[in-house]
Specification:
The protein has 11 helices and 12 strands. It is an alpha+beta fold. Strands 1, 2, 3, 4, 5, 6, 7, 8, 9, 10, 11 and 12 form a 12-stranded mixed beta sheet that branches. The longest helix is centred in the C-terminal third of the chain and has 27 residues. The protein is globular and about 65 Å long.
Length: 366
């Protein structure tokens, strides 16, 4: 700490000499600890390419997203959820629930979930019979952060799936996250019911947009064929299996191999089978600026093998690197869940139910 220049100079030196060096030191060979069942459908040269910068206007594209918040007290847990559908041309098309009748979709699904702080849920089932409220019992289990996460995820996923089944027409619909998310933290019976409903709701015009790729190994696994590894090493000078995630692999490719002016790059398609359903995935490397080495990396998922890169890859993105229309749906859903949450707290407080410290500290929308 007594180094010349103080703490700022010390940290700068540590980053340059140790941290950045460690991040850039790639082993010659490696293999990820967990491999996904995924298959690259084209050879490496065909799977990699630039998007046509002269692509036509994609037209109207819809995006949907959900949001949830929870109120925790010593007497139980209440979670609320909302979902929004937004158009890149018309703005907000539908919300559920909504304060405006003209924007409310015709849904009668639960957007409120209640967990009583007792061993049995019978105390609340006696007087709660609304189709908009789902009742749960923890059988005496403490209302831990894991319970809250499970409740919010189940409520939001079910509402989003029901919402998807009501979307009409064949316009492209962007969905925040995978088409079939990993729900292993839910009870098996709940998980199977939710996935079966999602399989019935998803159509070929739905496209999942996945932005969190730090734990994804779908691309790394698809490049694990010996012949593909040989071609990849010849082209890029590194074994793709040394990367622990798709994000690490694609960031390396973008930073070490792309030259300005940067254009949108595509990689794929990759085929997987999830819940007896064929899902086709591809990756987009989107530059924030043609002459700045900063990129957004997204995975897109669809039930059709056809090229969806042109429409998704040419959409304007936000500073966070996601399509603006998807960010609009996220904002609309969060604003609605915040409004419901505020009204909920007011009503519960008037009924003498006090919010716990955890809820005040960590009750941010998700």
């Amino acid at each position: 700490m007594s180094a010349r220049g103080g703490l700022s100079e010390l940290l700068s030196g540590l980053v340059a000499k140790y941290i950045a060096f460690q991040f850039d030191s790639l082993p010659l060979d490696g293999q990820p600890t967990i491999l996904e069942e995924s298959k690259l459908l084209n050879n490496l040269d065909e799977a990699l390419g630039e998007l046509d910068p002269q692509v036509q206007d994609p037209g109207e594209i819809l995006a949907m997203d959900g949001s949830s918040r929870s109120f925790l007290s010593s007497r139980g847990l209440v979670s609320v959820s909302s979902v929004a559908l937004v158009s890149n041309i018309k703005g907000v098309i539908g919300l559920f629930p909504s304060f405006e009748q003209s924007r409310t979709l015709d849904l009668s699904d639960p957007f409120i979930a209640v967990v009583g702080g007792f061993r049995s849920s019978s105390r609340i089932e006696d007087f709660l019979g609304s189709p908009f409220v789902a009742n749960y019992s923890t059988d005496g289990t403490s209302l831990s952060p894991e319970v809250i996460r499970t409740l919010e995820s189940e409520l939001r996923f079910g509402l989003e799936t029901s919402f998807m089944s009501r979307v009409k027409g064949d316009r492209l619909v962007l969905v925040d996250g995978p088409l079939f998310p990993n729900l292993l933290f839910l009870p098996k019976s709940h998980r199977e019911k939710l996935i079966d409903a999602r399989k019935r709701a998803v159509r070929k015009n739905f496209v999942g947009i996945v932005k969190r790729l730090n734990a994804s190994k779908i691309l790394v696994s698809a490049l694990g064929d010996p012949e593909v590894i040989r071609d990849f090493r010849s082209k890029f000078g590194v074994n793709p299996l040394v990367f622990s995630s798709d994000e690490g692999l694609l960031t390396y490719l973008a930073m070490k191999n792309l030259k300005p002016p940067f254009r949108v790059m595509k990689i794929g398609p990759i085929q997987r089978t999830l819940y007896d359903t064929k899902v086709y995935s591809g990756y987009l490397i989107i530059p924030f600026h043609p002459y700045v080495k900063k990129f957004s990396i997204l995975r897109i998922e669809s039930l059709q093998e056809g090229d969806l890169w042109e429409k998704v890859g040419t959409l304007p993105i936000t500073g966070d690197g996601i399509p603006k229309v998807l960010a609009m749906s996220d904002k609309a859903a969060k604003e609605m869940s915040n409004a419901i949450y505020s009204l909920l707290i007011s009503s519960l407080t008037l009924n003498g139910i006090q919010e716990s410290f955890y809820s005040r500290l960590e009750g941010a929308p998700s």
